[in-house]
Each structure stands twice: as structure tokens, then as C-alpha cells.
Amino acid sequence: MKKIKIIANPNAGRESALTKVLQLVKLLSKDKYQIILQFTHEEKDSTKFAMNDDGEDLVVCCGGDGTVNGVVNGLYRSKRRKPLAILQCGTVNDFANSIKLPTNINSFYKMIKNGKTLDVDLGQANDRVFVNVAAGGLLTEIAYTTSEDKKQVLGSMAYYIDGAKELLKGEMFKPENLLNIKIKSEDLEKEEKVSVFIIANSPSVGGFKRMAPAAEVSDGYLDVIFIKGMEFFDIPEFVRALLNGNHVDHNKVIYLKTKDIEITSDKDVVVDLDGERAGRLPMRFKILEKALTVLIV
Questions:
Q1: What are phi and psi of 23, to 5 degrees?
Q2: In angstroms, rounded to a whole number, what is the distance separating the alpha carbons of residues 119 and 131?
Q3: 42 contacts 50 by C-beta, under 8 angstroms
Q4: How far does the signal peptide extend, from start to end residue (predicted)?
Q5: 7 touches 46 (CB < 8 A)
Q6: Vertex 12: Cα angle to 11 and 15 (nearest 5)
Q7: DSSP secondary structure letter of residue 275
Q8: If DSSP codes are grouped into helix, strand and coil, which group holds residue 110?
Q9: 136 neighbors 269 (Cβ within 8 angstroms)
Q10: What's the CA gap between 70 and 67, in Å, rounded?
């Protein structure tokens, strides 16, 4: 008999998480699974719950990207290689979407029963890990400024629309808003002025499904994107390229794959990990190859 620990954010995804969790518990109970159900109420609860060893055979995470990040950090710190099943309930769910995890509860339960797994990479940023993305710059503020009402109505499209609006406004590309950074990796060492940097483990970032089009979750590399400043009249063309996933060839974009990169700045630059504020530059980012086992369809 399997013991399953469910870690859920009851407020995620317009409160759909609670409904999905109750449906899942009902299905698991019919098949006599032992269930440990834990709801998060404070920021670090997901990490704490995942770190604790309750004798579970499987951890189920129900929430958005931030909840997934907390659970993954807890599992990584505990050094327990427990498989993780991600029941996506948040607004964006970039990582879950990138590996095509089911949203339907019956399909999700079937995935648990089948038990098929995939070992995926994690990114490491100083002493924390991330499953999907690390980022810095003005564009990352959208995660905090997009209104709850808009997310309730539009879901992931709220970030997508606000992101496109911010790009078209052009404020992030103005010289006074650029970040003066130093980049050091095995293939690149230089100073550059950029509006935003993105370090991705999957193609999908912030609802843009082809932000890092060459990224793969198990290829042993981080995909790094630096977007430089540009003139206002160049922005519409850049946004079109971004929506099509062709922006990596734009002359205002630096795109590279690396296993290890250090970024420093003379400004106070906040770094987000999976959409949650997690520190400031300087920061070193490394790939942790096949460090997490996830259930897949």
C-alpha cells in the first residue's frame, strides 16, 4: 500500500486547488492509499512540509509555480529522492505545462497509478534551487503587479497580456532603466547593459511558451537570455519575434546554453526564482543534472 503526501496551496488558481485536492483524495481513498494532507498557510510551509520525512512513497504538490518551488527546495534539502507529482492549480504553471502534465483530475490520478517517471534537471542559485526559471529586471515585476481580479478572470493570459503591454511601453529598454551587469561563464565573459536576464530550465516562462525555445528539462544545460536596450521603433518587431519564439536571433538578444554562470551588477538587482523573490545579485547559477524525479504521463 502506498503512502502519499499531498502538499496543497488552498488559494491557488482561483481556489480551484481545494476542489482538485478533495477530488483526488476521494479517488485515492477508494483504492486504499494512505494519505497525508497538508495545506500551506505561510510562505515557507511548502518547503517545511516537503523536508519532513513522514514515510511517504510519493509527494503530490498542488499549487502554482511558487508552491512547486517550495516543495522542490524541501525535497532537495532533505536529500530524499522521493518522486514528485505536480497537480497544476496556479495561474501560469510554466514547468507543468512544459512537460505536458494533465490538468484533469482523472487523468492525473491515472498518471499516479501508472507510476511513469522522468528525471529532470534543477537550477541552483546560490543556496536555493529552481525548477523552471531565475530572472531579474523590470519585466519580472509583472508577477507582483498583475491584479488578482485580472488573474481571476484571465488566468495565465493576465501575465501574458501585461507582459506584452510592458514590452510595448518600452520603459524597460530606456538607458536609465538598464542593468549594468558582468557575465562570467565557460563560454562568455563580458560586461553588458541589459533590461532583463532569464535563466530557464524549460521553454515556457511567464506564459510565453517559447521564451527559451531550445530549452529541455533534462539536457544538462541552463538556457540563458539577456535582452539589451533598444530604440522604441524596434520594440514592435521584437515583441512579434518573442511571441513566435524567434527572438533569440534578434540583434538585441544574447542567448546561450551553459552549465554554470555568474552574474554581478553595480545596481541593487532582485532575482526571482520560479516567480518568487529569492535574493539579489551577485548570484551564481548552476545546473543540477537529473536532480528531481517527477511523474509524467
A1: -65, -40
A2: 12
A3: no
A4: none
A5: yes
A6: 60
A7: T
A8: helix
A9: yes
A10: 5
Grid look-up 554554470 returns 260
**Residue 54 has what DSSP assignment?**
-
**What's the CA gap between 87 and 8, in Å, rounded?**
9
Digit-coded pLDDT (tens) for 208-247: 889 999 999 999 999 999 999 888 888 889 888 988 889 9
What's the CATH class of domain 130-289?
mainly beta
Nearest-angstrom CA–CA distance, 53 and 223: 33
H, E, C per residue of 144-189: HHCCHHHHHHHCCHHHHHHHHHHHHHCHHHCHHHCEEEEEEECCCE
Domain limits, the chain: 2-115, 130-289
Distance from C-alpha of 273 to C-alpha of 72, rounded to nearest angstrom: 12
The cell for 22 is 478533495
Per the CB < 8 A criterion, the answer to whether 93 and 161 are in contact is no
Other C-beta atoms closer than 10 Å to the C-beta of 195 total 22
Strand partners, 39: 8
Contact 225, 200 (CB under 8 A): yes
Amino acid 193 reads K
- pLDDT tens profile 46-105: 999 999 999 999 999 999 888 999 999 999 999 989 999 999 887 778 899 999 999 999
Fill in the amino acid letter for 242: L
Q: What is the pTM of this model?
A: 0.89
The fold adopted by the segment(s) 2-115 is Rossmann fold (3.40.50)
